[in-house]
Design brief:
- 47% of the residues lie in helices and 15% in strands.
- By secondary structure, it is α/β, with parallel strands linked by helices.
- It has a single domain, classed as NAD(P)-binding Rossmann-like Domain (Rossmann fold, 3-Layer(aba) Sandwich).
- A 7-stranded parallel β-sheet has the order 3-2-1-4-5-6-7, with helices on both faces.
- α1 links the parallel β1 and β2.
- The radius of gyration is 17 Å and the shape is globular.
- The model has no long low-confidence stretch (mean pLDDT 97).
- It binds nicotinamide-adenine-dinucleotide.
- The site of nicotinamide-adenine-dinucleotide has 27 residues, from α1 and α4.
- Belongs to the short-chain dehydrogenases/reductases (SDR) family.
- Pfam families: adh_short_C2.
- GO terms for molecular function: oxidoreductase activity, acting on the CH-OH group of donors, NAD or NADP as acceptor.
């Protein structure tokens, strides 16, 4: 019988999701990695010893099939770290297209809902589980030229709280992590930009952007039994950004 914790990581082909999947595999979890189909996703199969399933988190039937395949393969689902997300454009809201706004909400908010709903349908009857949703510091504060992403991350935080209120009594914990800038493909251009990058470093009390491991360790903690009484929480991992 498989005694390892079965953990699903979305957005596992890149950045925070990739680092989190590697950390959890190292911890001994049985990994299920998902992302769009890509060479990087396939590589995760070798690196984690788990299974990799390509899925678009905005596609209801693909998300439901992802969870169904996980249960068919391992019989349970103990943890989810939902990292799939996008940040598409930095423009004043007056210039932002409806397409960009709706796409951002669909991937970041609807995707979080579909993944959490499918996981909850398994975890609630199982009477155990832990789900980590990926918010941002922008779940609680504003940022210039970023209306769609900021709105979406605020919604992810409130989604996490609502799910925690509904499901914690069934033994399913839901928490939202709030990274500040992290060195991943999503933020690398800003971090490397001489002006924006210098401003970011000055803005962060610790003086540097997060590494993906900084975030992965916190996700692993929230999934672990050490966090057994933590639910409905928003945990910033921001080098002090929100303290300023
Ligand atoms: N990098 C940062 O500075 C930062 C800061 C705060 C929050 N976050 C959040 O952390 C999460 C991970 O971001 P990252 O920095 O690792 O970015 P990333 O771009 O490196 O990785 C995101 C992954 O999500 C996948 N993805 C996007 N849309 C998808 C979809 N519809 N279906 C399936 N997979 C999809 C991409 O293919 C990619 O592999 C995101 O939710 C992001 O908003 C990032």
């Amino acid at each position: 019988m498989n005694t390892k914790k079965v953990t699903l990581v979305t957005g596992a082909a890149s950045g925070i999701g990739r680092a989190t999947a590697l950390k959890l595999a190292e911890r001994g979890d049985q990994l299920v990695c998902t992302d769009f189909a890509s060479a990087q996703l396939q590589e995760m199969k070798d690196l984690t010893g788990g299974i990799c399933i390509a899925a678009d988190v905005t596609n209801e039937s693909e998300v439901d099939a992802l969870i169904a395949t996980t249960i068919a393969e391992y019989g349970r689902l103990d943890g989810v770290v939902h990292c799939a997300g996008i940040e598409e454009s930095f423009v004043d809201a007056r210039e932002m297209t409806l397409e960009v706004f709706e796409k951002t909400m669909r991937v970041n908010v609807t995707g979080s809902f579909l993944v959490a709903r499918a996981a909850g349908r398994v975890m609630v009857p199982q009477a155990s589980g832990s789900i980590v949703l990926m918010g941002s510091i922008l779940s609680t504060v504003g940022y210039g030229g970023n209306a769609a992403y900021t709105a979406s991350k605020g919604a992810v935080l409130q989604l996490g709280r609502a799910l925690a209120v509904d499901w914690s009594k069934f033994g399913v914990r839901i928490n939202v992590v709030g990274p500040g800038p992290v060195a991943t493909p999503m933020s690398q251009a800003s971090i490397d930009d001489p002006v924006r990058g210098a401003w970011l470093r000055e803005r962060i009390p610790i003086g540097r952007p997060a590494t993906t491991d900084d975030i992965a360790g916190v996700c692993a903690f929230l999934l672990s039994d050490e966090a057994s009484y933590i639910t409905g929480t928003y945990l910033p991992v921001d080098g002090g950004w929100l303290a300023l």
